[in-house]
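For consistency, the fold was encoded as tokens, which produced the following:
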Amino acid sequence: MSAIIRICIACLLSLIMTSCATGMWGPAYKQHEASSVVDYLYPKSSEPPSQEPVTHLRLPVRVGIAFVPSSGHGDSSLSEESKIKLLNRAKMVFEKYPYIDKIEVIPSAYLRAAGGFDNLEQVGRMFGIEVIALISYDQIQFDDPNKLSLLYWTIVGAYVIKGDQHDTQTMVDASVFDIASRKMLFRAPGVSTIKGSTTMVNYQEEARMARQKGYEDAVAKMLPNLEQELLAFKERIKQNRSVQIEHKPGYKGGGSLGWFGLLMAGMIAFSLRGARRLS
């Protein structure tokens, strides 16, 4: 099944589930907020997105990180300040790798709802980035004693997450795209469950704090997956002919050692040189 067909099916089923949710889940939850990479990048699902057959990555790459605009499922309880803080945590993961030149944290105002790749290319030119990590989210706070489920569509499939009364379920998903070729390079999810008390005295405040903590915990669980995907991607592109690697002038490649590995290698070389002098 082609990527285009999968996207169309995902959008159709997402609309069906949204309609069902309106009728079945209406009185069952207090808060539901979401953003979707599919809705942002492919607002016209009947029009197949054009992609370059080959992705050219020129190392070191310049990366941007941004939250995807809301899909209209309620206003986000995350302030712009909170979003920037969470994005900076993801930024620290990218900074570990020598094949990444700079990482720009992009404020939400620069991404418009249903902006598609045209908007993404504008952001790329404005911030001078070549690759972008789009952070999408889906959070629901149940307020019903019956067992409920959240169906969350990502760009590559669906997740069903169970919940109970006063539970706060949060998914945060990082999808990394090459802007020029419009290809997704890899993705990393994170899921959080915050259990609420059925006898909450100050429900509104407790619920707000649970939503905030849900985002923080989901991001914390996403970060190791993101790091793992960064390592795996570096190995995959060695055998993936659809991704071609070039080096920018002055870049000789840093492998996967990082600054600590280079320091250790230097210390070992110095020790061996001293040993040869003594022998």
In short: Residues 12-28, 255-272, 274-279 have pLDDT under 50 and may be disordered. The CA atoms of residues 168 and 194 lie 5 Å apart.
